[in-house]
Design brief:
This protein is mainly beta. It contains two helices and 23 strands. Strand 12 and strand 13 form a beta hairpin.
């Protein structure tokens, strides 16, 4: 049995590579007493289980054959190439973001990603599954998840898009590290923000994950008297278990919510820029983090 992608795309809309398409089928039977007689009974079978497949390339359906063409070609046609982007900046389309992320040849945080908006992190890691969660983003209607085993030779795969703020990937290999990226999109399919890379291992092996982050900031607050003053966070990532070593794919990272108020360098040194308040995040590769409220008095 076969059918045309035309029935899936509708109105000539493109179907991009790695887009997930779900199928369900059922059959229909009519009972008649003789040829061309009235239908006496009808039967519809139950729907089958859902079959999910991914498009192997970009498609565009040609719905306008040449006038008078006795054999109009309405088969799927390749679409124009998706415009490339150099970073995950706001306003990029889902197709552009997917092309950018699946084309990455590094385990490092992609250019343009940010921590504070989504704050993606590990929720739970079992032998054969990993659950992640993130903040609800204002204006976001969907979140796309990309993943693969850790390693530069393992490019990201697009997994799915969800409307909620959590996702569980199943059927994973035990004791294995996986990497994840989460991107938030608005109702028009335009990018709002992309989270930093998560590196999480399934259980059942010798390795573990980080469960929390500690800093030298008392009560998670830092007050700087004036511009130019600084404070060293001295952040540490704490493992879930002393019996499980954590393979460090990415060291401790820091981010300021407003660099006009205060900046933070790669070593965790916060420097006051002008009067005001902001948040500084210290986060580990599992997404575990500490949020520090920074106040610059003058």
């Amino acid at each position: 049995m076969g059918f045309d992608v035309l029935a899936l795309a509708g109105d000539g809309k493109p179907i991009y590579k790695d887009t997930e398409i779900e199928f369900r089928t059922r059959y229909f039977v009519e009972q008649r007493m003789g040829y061309n007689t009235e239908v006496e009974s009808e039967f519809f079978s139950p729907y089958s289980n859902i079959l999910t497949v991914k498009a192997d390339k970009d498609y565009m359906v040609n719905t306008q054959p040449a006038p008078g063409d006795p054999n109009p070609d309405i088969s799927p046609q390749p679409v124009n190439p998706v415009p490339s982007i150099s970073s995950l900046s706001g306003g990029a389309t889902k197709a552009q973001v997917t092309k950018f992320i699946t084309g990455l040849k590094t385990d490092s945080d992609p250019k343009g990603s940010t921590f504070g908006i989504l704050s993606a992190k590990q929720k739970k890691a079992a032998k054969n599954s990993i659950s992640i969660t993130w903040n609800k983003v204002k204006g976001a209607k969907s979140y796309s998840i990309y993943a693969n085993k850790c390693g530069k030779t393992n490019p990201y795969n697009y997994l799915t898009s969800v409307s909620g703020t959590s996702y569980t990937q199943k059927n994973l290999k035990k004791g294995t590290y996986y990497k994840y990226l989460v991107a938030a999109f608005n109702g028009s399919g335009k990018l709002i923000a992309t989270a930093k890379t998560l590196h999480i291992t399934t259980s059942g092996g010798k390795n573990g994950n980080f469960k929390k982050v500690t800093t030298a900031a008392k009560k998670d607050k830092v007050t700087l008297k004036k511009k130019g003053k600084s404070f060293k966070l001295k952040a540490k990532a704490i493992p879930e278990s002393k019996k499980r070593k954590v393979n460090v794919h990415r060291g401790m990272k820091y981010e300021s919510s407003n660099t006009k108020i205060a900046t933070v360098n790669a070593g965790g040194k916060i420097t006051a820029k002008k009067k005001g308040k902001c948040i500084v995040y210290a986060y580990a590769q599992s997404g575990a983090y500490k949020k520090i409220k920074v106040t610059v008095k003058k």
